[in-house]
Amino acid sequence: MIETPKMTGERIKEYLQEGKRFDGRKLDEFRKITIETGVSKNAEGSARVNLGKTEVLVGVKLDVAEPYSDSQEEGNLMVTAEFLTMSSPRLDLGPQPFGSLELARVIDRGIRESHFIDLKKLCIKKGEKVWNVMIDIYSINDDGNLLDAAGIGAIAALKTARIPRYNEETGKPIFGEWTDEKIPLSKETPISLTVHKIGNSLIIDPTKEEEDISETRVTVCSSNGIVYSLQKGESKELSVEEFQKILDLVEKTEKKIYKEIESNIK
C-alpha cells in the first residue's frame, strides 16, 4: 500500500511522542550545519548555508543612498528573500509566495531590533548620503527550516562583508574595490531560531515532512538570553508552560549555532 502524506504525518507524530525522529535526531537537535563564506566575487559579503539538504545563499551589497526621512543620521537596511522555483517542486512560476515575504521581514526585524548593525556609523553626510545595506536571500533547496538557514546566512554574510571604496568627488562607491573596513557590528550576535509544535512535541530544525504537519511555530531572535524579536506562525495556541520551554530551548541552542558561525568565519 502506498503511504499517503496523512499517513506519513501520523507516523511522524507517533515517533515524536516517543522522542524519536525519522532521521535519528533528537527533538532538540539540528541537522548537520555547513557554512561557507565568500561564495560571491561581486557581493560585499556572502554565505552559503546548508542545514542537511536545505540550502540558501545570502549576499550583502552596499550602495550609497539618501537616508530615510525618520533617520537622517543612520544608514539604511533592506532585506529581501526569493524562493527560487528550482528549490522546491511546490513552487510555481509567478508571484513569490507569502513565505518569502514573511522570511525577509523576520530576518530584517531580528537584525534591526537587536541593533546588530550600528547604522549611525554608516552615515556619510547627515540628511544627504548614507550607506545602504541590502541583504538578499535565495533558496536553493527547500527541505525544511529555510527561516533558520536564512538567519544563519545573513549573520555570516554580514560578519564577512567589507565596505567598498568611496569616491568623494562622485559621491558614489567604487564597485569591485573594497577597503579593509567592515560593516560596524555589535559584539552581541543575534541568532534567529524557530521552534515547531507538532502534537505535544516541540522540535527544532524540521525537515519538510515535519514542517508540513507543524501546528504552530515561534521564531525567536536572541543573544545570550536577551530576546530581540518574536514571530508566531500558524494558528495553534501555546500554553504558558510551552512558551517557557520554547525560550529555554532557544537559549540552549543559540550558543551552539553561534559557535558554528564563528568557526566558519574567514
Plain-language structure description:
The protein is built from five helices and twelve strands. The strands form three sheets. Strands 1, 2, 3, 4, 5 and 6 form a six-stranded mixed sheet that branches. Strands 10-9-11-12 form a four-stranded antiparallel sheet, with helices on both faces. The chain has helices at residues 5-17, 98-113, 146-160, 208-212, 240-264, and strands at residues 33-37, 45-51, 54-65, 76-83, 123-125, 129-141, 162-167, 172-182, 191-198, 201-204, 216-223, 226-233. It is elongated. Helices cover 28% and strands 35% of the residues. The chain is an alpha+beta fold and 266 residues long. It starts with a helix and ends with a helix. The mean pLDDT is 92. It has one domain (10-264): GHMP Kinase, N-terminal domain (Ribosomal Protein S5, domain 2), CATH 3.30.230.70.
In a few lines, what is going on in this structure?
With 266 residues, the protein is α+β, with helices and mostly antiparallel strands.
Would you tell me the structural class of the helices and strands?
A: alpha+beta
Percent of residues in β-strands: 25-35%
Helical residue percent band: 25-40%
CATH class wording: Alpha Beta
**Approximate shape:** elongated
Name of the CATH architecture: 2-Layer Sandwich
Q: Remind me, CATH topology?
A: Ribosomal Protein S5, domain 2
* Biggest sheet descriptor: 6 strands, mixed
Highlighted features:
266 residues; alpha+beta; Ribosomal Protein S5, domain 2; six-stranded mixed β-sheet; four-stranded antiparallel β-sheet; 12 strands; 35% strand; elongated
